[in-house]
Write a structure and sequence with these properties.
heterodimer, A: about 160 residues, alpha/beta, Oxidized Rhodanese, domain 1, 2 domains, B: about 140 residues, mainly alpha, 5 helices, about 70% helix, globular
């Protein structure tokens, strides 16, 4: 069979696409074709009065982050150690070592209790990745503060430096 | 054998094995790959999953194609297209100041940055070299 470069390129793309779809349909680690987007906790940005039903991973904004901070919900800084030491949200856990972080959270509360992850800003994926890792470790109610450190600092909210 | 043929075979093996190796991690864990794509904020409507399902298999087949020489022109054209897309994605992430994991499948936890961009330019260069090889038909299956 003789195929031109372009035709055989298209053949490769079709072969790869079909193989991927068929294998995905039959394997246990298969995922849906369309990704589910993380939802914000409320439509109007208000913190729900009761968050007992809030499960899974959700996005929160600055106001909501501040409210949870004031309530004493633990924050986890997903950034590098250096950035954490330069400045972080007071009381936030450092993610120097994931097992250590899980141990520290476990000594503080159960895995069904709320916690907040954050990193630099919306352009940083670390807070979401950490939330997924924590969820995979059994934590069931995780909030991702997407605005992160930059937004928090800009708002003039309390900050801490060092350990 | 023309003098450049050995160089072309070496380039085919390098790019071919890189494509296969990069595909393996992504095939093993499509969910992590999908989240890595999502972090680039380039793909709308949750389409990152369909990319995560299909893209690694395309990489796998063109990698095999480069090594075996099966429809070599087609395989190398796809590699060029993929590298162009990766360069644009990584380049735009750098320009936007993103500090995200590459999701390239070669090294776990590797962040986007200039070294990664240069690496993809090298693969693109090698695949262009393969496409314009002078000795055709040898060590190839059509």
């Amino acid at each position: 069979m003789k195929l031109t470069g372009l035709t055989s390129a298209i053949a490769y793309i079709i072969l790869g696409t079909l193989t991927g779809l068929v294998i995905n349909a039959f394997r246990p680690a298969g995922i849906p074709w369309i990704a589910e987007q993380l939802s914000t906790i409320t439509d109007n940005g208000a913190v729900p009065e009761s968050d007992s039903l809030l499960t899974g991973i959700h996005i929160i904004n600055l106001d909501e982050a501040k409210t949870y901070f004031d309530q004493g919900i633990p924050f986890v800084d997903a950034r590098e150690e250096e950035e954490y030491l330069e400045g972080h949200i007071p009381g936030a856990f450092m993610n120097r070592n994931f097992m250590e972080l899980v141990f520290n959270l476990d000594t503080l509360q159960t895995r069904e209790d709320l916690l907040v992850t954050y990193c630099d800003d919306i352009e940083c994926g670390l807070s979401k990745n950490l939330a997924y890792d924590l969820q995979a470790s059994g934590f069931t109610r995780i909030l991702v503060f997407e605005g992160g450190w930059h937004l928090w600092k800009e708002a003039g909210y309390p900050v801490a430096e060092g350990q | 054998m023309k003098p450049g043929t050995l160089l072309i075979i070496a380039a085919r093996l390098i790019v071919g094995f890189v494509m296969i190796y990069a595909a393996l991690d992504k095939i093993a864990d499509p969910l992590t790959f999908s989240r890595a794509i999502n972090n680039y904020h380039l793909i709308p409507w949750g389409m990152e999953n369909i990319m995560a399902i299909t893209l690694p298999w395309i990489e796998m087949f063109v990698g095999i194609g480069l090594i075996t020489g099966i429809f070599l022109d087609g395989a190398v054209l796809v590699v060029q297209g993929l590298m162009a897309v990766f360069i644009l994605a990584i380049g735009s992430a750098i320009l936007r100041g993103y500090d995200i994991e590459c999701g390239c499948g070669l090294k776990s936890g590797e962040l986007v940055g200039l070294p990664k961009l240069l690496e993809d330019f090298v693969y693109l260069g090698l695949s262009v070299l393969i496409y314009f090889r002078s000795e055709r038909g040898r060590f190839e299956l059509k």
